[in-house]
């Protein structure tokens, strides 16, 4: 999908303000809850809800933070709520400079409250990111970078936003290290299953012992009926003292038979 995004330079930030994207955390889905609370309920585990708020206001819970890989205890309060913040995966200012300034006001409100573009994350990490794009900031948790970049691309495609050349190159580098089937843009990091133990390698059997060749007949017991037998055995000429020598094979008595 990255290849389908237009590549252009960053437009001026002129005219940008948070108000260009409507009321913060507007109840765009009309479920009676502000978007921030919707995202806290979605992303926190063991969430405790404030009584009398129609199940909207989250008082506490635990966040498995995708940006840092840490676990964060969320407690609602003036001094504690900022520990968990709702991040715009594609920052509003970044979007404004890459096409959102052309969107209709209602479309910008939808962008700012779209669950695809929102994540509950570690507050300090979100502040560090600010309005950076993939060329200037990536999650410290490397295991989440494929999902993070895939999500940015999905958001930009949905709202017809563009990327800068540096941003495109940074995204391509991340995607180049992702699995063949990268996690979907809406996924969150999960515990990695331990790899299955490799199958035991087959133990090679020892080579079969070579079958010994039959032992040659003891030459001391050799007997040749005549010179034809000596020649057939390749023993001609046969000399006195050699196995199988016989005077009857040596007719001239010179000690060499079957000449």
Give a verbal description of the structure.
The strands form three sheets. Strands 1-2-3 form a three-stranded antiparallel sheet, with helices on one face. Strands 4-5 form a two-stranded antiparallel ribbon. It is an alpha+beta fold and 259 residues long. It folds into two domains: 2-175, no CATH class; 219-257, no CATH class. Strand 2 (58-64) and strand 3 (71-75) form a beta hairpin. Helices cover 23% and strands 12% of the residues.
List the helices and strands and how they pair.
Elements: H1 35-43, E1 44-49, E2 58-64, E3 71-75, E4 84-88, H2 92-96, H3 105-112, E5 118-122, H4 123-129, H5 145-158, H6 165-175, H7 227-232, E6 238-239, E7 256-257
Antiparallel strand pairs: 1-2, 2-3, 4-5, 6-7
How far the N terminus sits from the C terminus, by CA atoms, comes to 95 Å
Shape summary: rod-shaped
Q: How many domains is the backbone divided into?
A: 2
Order of helices and strands: HEEEEHHEHHHHEE
How much strand content do the residues show?
Answer: 5-15%
The parts where pLDDT drops under 50 for at least 5 residues are 189-220
Structural class determined from secondary elements = alpha+beta
Note the total helix count: 7
**Can you count the beta strands?**
7
Fraction of residues in helices? 10-25%
Give the strand order, joined by hyphens, for the main sheet.
Answer: 1-2-3
If you average the pLDDT, what whole number results?
A: 85
Radius of gyration: 43 Å
User: Biggest β-sheet: count, sense, barrel?
Assistant: 3 strands, antiparallel
């Amino acid at each position: 999908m990255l290849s389908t995004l237009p590549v252009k330079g960053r437009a001026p930030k002129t005219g940008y303000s948070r108000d260009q994207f409507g009321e913060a955390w507007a109840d765009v889905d009309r479920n009676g809850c502000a978007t921030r609370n919707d995202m806290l309920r979605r992303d926190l585990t063991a969430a405790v809800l404030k009584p009398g708020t129609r199940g909207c206001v989250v008082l506490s819970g635990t966040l498995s933070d995708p940006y840092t890989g840490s676990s964060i205890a969320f407690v609602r309060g003036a001094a504690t709520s900022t520990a968990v913040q709702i991040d715009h995966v594609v920052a509003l200012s970044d979007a404004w400079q890459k096409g959102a300034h052309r969107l209709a006001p209602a479309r910008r409100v939808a962008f700012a409250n779209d669950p695809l573009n929102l994540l509950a994350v570690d507050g300090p990490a979100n502040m560090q990111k600010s309005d950076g794009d993939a060329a200037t900031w990536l999650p410290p948790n490397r295991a989440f970078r494929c999902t993070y970049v895939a999500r940015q691309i999905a958001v930009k495609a949905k709202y017809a936003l563009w990327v800068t050349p540096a941003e495109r190159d940074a995204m391509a580098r991340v995607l180049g290290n992702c699995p063949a089937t990268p996690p979907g843009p809406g996924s969150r990091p999960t515990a990695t299953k331990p790899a299955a133990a490799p199958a035991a390698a087959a133990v090679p059997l020892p080579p079969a012992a070579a079958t010994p060749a039959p032992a040659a007949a003891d030459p001391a017991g050799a007997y040749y009926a005549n010179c034809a037998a000596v020649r057939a055995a390749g023993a001609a000429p046969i000399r006195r003292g050699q196995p199988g020598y016989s005077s009857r094979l040596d007719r001239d008595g010179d000690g060499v038979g079957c000449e």
